[in-house]
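Module 6 notes. Inverse folding takes a fixed backbone as the condition and produces residue identities as the prediction. Think of it as a translation problem where the source language is geometry and the target language is the twenty amino acids. Below is one complete input and output pair. Work through it position by position during the lab.
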């Protein structure tokens, strides 16, 4: 920790009045089994914008100041006692869902369903939009050597896409339909192809996102165009879009619910579901998905170039949030760099 003498830890706080402020705090010290990560880049997630604009998402409410952010890359700055397999200077990404490691779900490998999971940036738990953060050592993953910090910050949404594809049931070459061409949808397009999927069609209402989908090899479809596919992914959460998911799946196909439906309700014609004998599966964040996400980011099977439309320095973080919230037609993904 001597090398960090005089270091400043800038932290971005969001309060219950939707105000964002940058404050300086002491650099934390890692305890046993933990590491100190110097954060280098953060992506702004849609959930971060929900908390910023609406003050809540699901059961999580912003009722006191907290640090948002959970899409982060950085380097190991210090090691706590007992940490093995990591060294100071290692380039890493953070897996923000930290489970207990002991319950039945954790022991079965489905640790995303751990009842005691702590998720960074789910208020009041502080997240990663700061300069220095202490996390459990098993919550960091080494970055591929050629991957930049900016690209690696998108490992978390890439892990969502990998998990969504892992949850789907399909044979090599199966066709796919992705409803919603936001950051997660564009990642799903690529992860589906990387996992052996065939042709992919993408639906969205925003032209810039459909252009990005085309750049990534998907065919764009209008919102009212009839499309059928073997696997249908909803990443939009739109009530209207969700209502047509079963009708878009071919007989014997699979529908994957990735987005959180508006109002927590999905209205569908159950006859489409029963007659076609469909599978309908849910996606809750991810489990065991970071290795593939980092591999595919590192070798180019998942590309971030068409997704990252805006980059801000950390000192302009409040502006980055405001711009992203006010310009949904221009912004696909905003990244904040700690420089």
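Target side of the pair, the amino acids:
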């Amino acid at each position: 920790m001597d090398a960090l003498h005089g270091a400043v830890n800038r932290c971005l706080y969001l309060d219950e009045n939707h105000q964002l402020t940058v404050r300086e705090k002491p650099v934390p010290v890692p305890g046993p089994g933990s590491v100190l990560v110097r954060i280098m880049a953060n992506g702004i997630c849609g959930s971060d914008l929900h908390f910023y604009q609406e003050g809540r998402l699901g059961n999580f409410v912003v009722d006191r100041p907290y640090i948002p952010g959970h899409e982060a890359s950085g380097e190991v700055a210090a090691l706590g006692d007992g940490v093995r397999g990591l060294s100071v200077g290692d380039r890493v990404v953070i897996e923000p869902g930290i489970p207990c490691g002991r319950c039945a779900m954790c022991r079965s490998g489905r640790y995303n369903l751990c009842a005691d999971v702590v998720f960074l940036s789910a208020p009041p738990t502080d997240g990663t939009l700061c300069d220095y953060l202490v996390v459990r050592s098993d919550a960091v993953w080494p970055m591929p050597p050629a991957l930049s910090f900016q690209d690696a910050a998108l490992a978390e949404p890439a892990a969502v896409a990998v998990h969504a594809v892992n949850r789907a049931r399909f044979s090599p070459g199966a066709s796919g339909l992705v409803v919603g061409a936001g950051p997660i949808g564009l990642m799903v397009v690529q992860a589906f192809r990387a996992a052996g999927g065939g042709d992919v069609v993408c639906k969205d209402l925003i032209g810039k996102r459909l252009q990005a989908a085309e750049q990534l090899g998907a065919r764009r479809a209008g919102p009212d165009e009839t499309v059928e596919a073997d696997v249908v992914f909803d990443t939009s959460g739109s009530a209207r879009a969700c209502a047509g998911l079963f009708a878009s799946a071919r007989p014997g196909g699979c529908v994957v619910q990735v987005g959180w439906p508006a109002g927590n309700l999905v209205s569908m014609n159950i006859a489409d579901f029963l007659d076609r004998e469909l599978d309908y599966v849910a996606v809750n964040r991810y489990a065991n998905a970071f290795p593939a996400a980092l591999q595919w980011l590192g070798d180019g099977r998942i590309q971030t170039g068409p997704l990252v439309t805006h980059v801000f320095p950390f000192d302009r973080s409040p502006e980055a949030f405001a711009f992203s919230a006010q310009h949904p037609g221009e912004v696909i993904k905003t990244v904040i760099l700690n420089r």
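Reference fact for the lab report: The first strand starts at residue 9 and ends at 14.
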